[in-house]
Amino acid sequence: MKKSIYLFMFLVLTMGLILAACGNDEESQEGSDTSNEETTDRDTDTEDEADIGEDRDTESEMPENLTVDLINEDEENVGTAELAESDEGVVITLNASGLPEGEFGFHFHENGQCDAPDFESAGDHFNPTDASHGTDHEDGPHAGDLPNLVVGEDGEVQEEITAEHVTLQTGEENSLLDDNGTSLVIHTEADDYETQPSGDAGDRMLCGVVSR
Predict the structure, then answer these.
(1) Virtual torsion, Cα 172, 63, 94, 106, nearest 10 deg
(2) pLDDT (tens digit, 9 = 90+) per residue, 40-80?
(3) What start and end residues bound the annotated signal peptide (predicted)?
(4) Any idea where the domains of the chain sit in the sequence?
């Protein structure tokens, strides 16, 4: 009789130990799963933060917009040109008034100087690749060549033009912000897009220095 009781108690104790061990294994597995989930979440958060940081770095590398003040032969401010870097080049938003009616050549020139009244200090067209002038020339255009501007009878012009061959990024061969600087010039005649060296665009009517 006593042996039966002892055997029964032994079996009960053994079953209790087995059940306790299984419970600990399940808790350990649940804890491990929770820890793995937390680690995965932390890794995902870190990757997201890194992506955001890369986006911010890209944004911070984009050059700031520039405002170019355009003056006439009397050194009067008659307009502005806003320059903004884009994937396609430099976007020029031009607003000017008090101009004669007609079609006029428009270019970036190689020096950041605008000495009135003739603006010859601006130098030749901006041409870092030593190309020929004009979009209609087989060896053109200059990096600084731009489409003609059309001024209405009210003497005003509002244009948005993308200069595809230049950049505001410093250190680049075609940067408008090189050591010499550059300038924007509006001529007195239309550019024919082919005649060397400047499209037979006449004298210089307006000029503005491109600078920070």
Answers:
(1) 0
(2) 555 555 555 555 555 444 444 678 999 999 999 999 999 99
(3) 1-20
(4) 1-61, 66-210
